Amino acid sequence: MAKTVREIMSADCVTATTKDNIYELAVLMKKHDIGFVPVVEGKKLVGVATDRDLVLRGYAEKHSGSTAVSEVLTTTVKTISSDTTVDEAAKMMARHQIRRLPVVDNGDLVGVVAIGDLAVREIFVNEAGEALSDISEHEHREPQGFVH
User: Which Gene3D superfamilies match (predicted)?
Assistant: First the structure.
Protein backbone atom coordinates (compact mmCIF):
# COMPACT_ATOMS: atom_id res chain seq x y z
CA MET A 1 0.00 0.00 0.00
CA ALA A 2 1.34 3.44 -0.98
CA LYS A 3 2.32 5.86 1.76
CA THR A 4 0.13 8.93 2.09
CA VAL A 5 0.97 12.55 2.78
CA ARG A 6 -0.68 12.15 6.21
CA GLU A 7 2.23 9.90 7.21
CA ILE A 8 4.97 12.42 6.40
CA MET A 9 3.41 15.89 6.71
CA SER A 10 4.06 18.32 9.54
CA ALA A 11 0.74 18.52 11.35
CA ASP A 12 1.86 21.03 13.96
CA CYS A 13 2.58 23.95 11.64
CA VAL A 14 2.91 27.63 12.47
CA THR A 15 0.06 29.72 11.05
CA ALA A 16 -1.02 33.35 10.88
CA THR A 17 -4.46 34.92 10.48
CA THR A 18 -5.77 37.71 8.30
CA LYS A 19 -5.93 39.82 11.47
CA ASP A 20 -2.12 39.75 11.77
CA ASN A 21 0.07 42.44 10.23
CA ILE A 22 3.24 41.98 8.20
CA TYR A 23 5.52 42.91 11.10
CA GLU A 24 3.96 40.15 13.23
CA LEU A 25 4.35 37.78 10.30
CA ALA A 26 8.04 38.67 9.96
CA VAL A 27 8.59 38.14 13.70
CA LEU A 28 6.82 34.76 13.47
CA MET A 29 9.10 33.72 10.60
CA LYS A 30 12.20 34.81 12.50
CA LYS A 31 11.14 33.15 15.76
CA HIS A 32 10.45 29.80 14.10
CA ASP A 33 13.18 30.08 11.42
CA ILE A 34 10.69 29.57 8.59
CA GLY A 35 9.93 31.33 5.33
CA PHE A 36 6.45 29.94 4.66
CA VAL A 37 3.34 30.52 6.76
CA PRO A 38 -0.17 29.29 5.95
CA VAL A 39 -2.79 31.95 6.68
CA VAL A 40 -6.05 30.72 8.15
CA GLU A 41 -9.42 31.97 9.31
CA GLY A 42 -10.29 29.52 12.04
CA LYS A 43 -9.06 26.30 10.45
CA LYS A 44 -9.85 27.31 6.86
CA LEU A 45 -6.83 27.98 4.66
CA VAL A 46 -7.18 31.39 2.97
CA GLY A 47 -3.68 31.64 1.54
CA VAL A 48 0.02 31.51 2.29
CA ALA A 49 2.67 34.12 2.93
CA THR A 50 6.35 33.60 2.23
CA ASP A 51 9.39 35.62 3.17
CA ARG A 52 9.54 36.57 -0.50
CA ASP A 53 5.93 37.83 -0.37
CA LEU A 54 6.87 39.98 2.63
CA VAL A 55 9.77 41.53 0.77
CA LEU A 56 8.24 42.00 -2.68
CA ARG A 57 4.63 42.88 -1.83
CA GLY A 58 5.28 44.37 1.58
CA TYR A 59 8.47 46.16 2.45
CA ALA A 60 9.72 46.77 -1.12
CA GLU A 61 6.38 48.46 -1.83
CA LYS A 62 7.06 50.70 1.21
CA HIS A 63 4.22 49.21 3.25
CA SER A 64 4.57 49.74 6.97
CA GLY A 65 4.78 46.89 9.46
CA SER A 66 1.17 47.55 10.43
CA THR A 67 -0.02 46.57 6.94
CA ALA A 68 -2.48 43.67 7.00
CA VAL A 69 -1.19 40.22 6.05
CA SER A 70 -3.92 40.16 3.40
CA GLU A 71 -1.90 42.75 1.43
CA VAL A 72 1.00 40.32 0.86
CA LEU A 73 -0.93 37.05 0.90
CA THR A 74 -0.85 34.58 -1.99
CA THR A 75 -4.42 33.34 -2.35
CA THR A 76 -4.07 31.07 -5.38
CA VAL A 77 -2.46 28.16 -3.60
CA LYS A 78 -2.01 24.58 -4.74
CA THR A 79 -3.09 22.19 -1.99
CA ILE A 80 -3.39 18.44 -1.53
CA SER A 81 -5.45 16.23 0.74
CA SER A 82 -3.94 14.09 3.46
CA ASP A 83 -4.88 10.89 1.64
CA THR A 84 -2.84 11.84 -1.45
CA THR A 85 -0.02 9.39 -2.05
CA VAL A 86 3.52 10.60 -1.49
CA ASP A 87 4.25 9.72 -5.12
CA GLU A 88 1.42 11.99 -6.32
CA ALA A 89 2.59 14.79 -4.02
CA ALA A 90 6.17 14.56 -5.35
CA LYS A 91 4.96 14.68 -8.94
CA MET A 92 2.72 17.68 -8.22
CA MET A 93 5.54 19.53 -6.48
CA ALA A 94 7.87 18.91 -9.44
CA ARG A 95 5.24 19.81 -12.03
CA HIS A 96 4.33 23.12 -10.35
CA GLN A 97 7.81 23.96 -8.99
CA ILE A 98 6.53 23.95 -5.39
CA ARG A 99 8.71 23.41 -2.30
CA ARG A 100 5.87 23.34 0.26
CA LEU A 101 2.27 22.24 -0.09
CA PRO A 102 -0.51 22.94 2.40
CA VAL A 103 -2.45 19.79 3.23
CA VAL A 104 -6.17 20.54 3.32
CA ASP A 105 -9.09 18.26 4.16
CA ASN A 106 -12.61 19.65 3.70
CA GLY A 107 -11.19 23.18 3.45
CA ASP A 108 -9.36 22.91 6.79
CA LEU A 109 -5.58 23.11 7.02
CA VAL A 110 -4.33 19.87 8.57
CA GLY A 111 -0.62 20.18 7.82
CA VAL A 112 2.14 21.07 5.40
CA VAL A 113 4.32 18.76 3.34
CA ALA A 114 7.70 20.05 2.20
CA ILE A 115 10.03 18.74 -0.47
CA GLY A 116 12.44 17.85 2.35
CA ASP A 117 9.80 15.59 3.91
CA LEU A 118 9.92 13.47 0.77
CA ALA A 119 13.71 13.25 0.64
CA VAL A 120 14.56 13.03 4.35
CA ARG A 121 12.23 10.13 4.94
CA GLU A 122 13.62 8.36 1.87
CA ILE A 123 10.16 7.77 0.48
CA PHE A 124 10.08 7.81 -3.30
CA VAL A 125 13.61 9.17 -3.26
CA ASN A 126 13.81 9.27 -7.06
CA GLU A 127 10.69 11.42 -7.38
CA ALA A 128 11.68 13.66 -4.46
CA GLY A 129 15.22 14.07 -5.78
CA GLU A 130 13.93 14.80 -9.26
CA ALA A 131 11.39 17.29 -7.87
CA LEU A 132 14.05 19.05 -5.80
CA SER A 133 16.42 19.13 -8.77
CA ASP A 134 13.72 20.53 -11.07
CA ILE A 135 12.70 23.16 -8.52
CA SER A 136 16.27 24.19 -7.75
CA GLU A 137 17.20 24.47 -11.42
CA HIS A 138 14.09 26.52 -12.16
CA GLU A 139 14.54 28.97 -9.29
CA HIS A 140 18.27 29.53 -9.53
CA ARG A 141 18.97 30.06 -13.21
CA GLU A 142 21.55 32.67 -13.99
CA PRO A 143 20.41 35.61 -16.12
CA GLN A 144 21.35 35.51 -19.80
CA GLY A 145 24.72 37.11 -20.46
CA PHE A 146 25.99 36.65 -16.91
CA VAL A 147 29.78 36.46 -16.91
CA HIS A 148 31.76 34.78 -14.13
Answer: CBS-domain
Locate the DSSP E strands across the chain: 16-17, 36-41, 44-50, 100-105, 108-114
State in words which class domain 5-139 has: alpha beta
Domain ranges for the chain, please list them: 5-139
What does each of the 148 residues of the chain score in pLDDT, given as a tens digit? Answer: 678 999 999 999 999 999 999 999 999 999 999 999 999 999 999 999 999 999 888 887 788 888 899 989 999 999 999 999 999 999 999 999 989 999 999 999 999 999 888 865 454 445 555 666 665 555 544 444 444 3
CB 101 within 8 Å of CB 79: yes
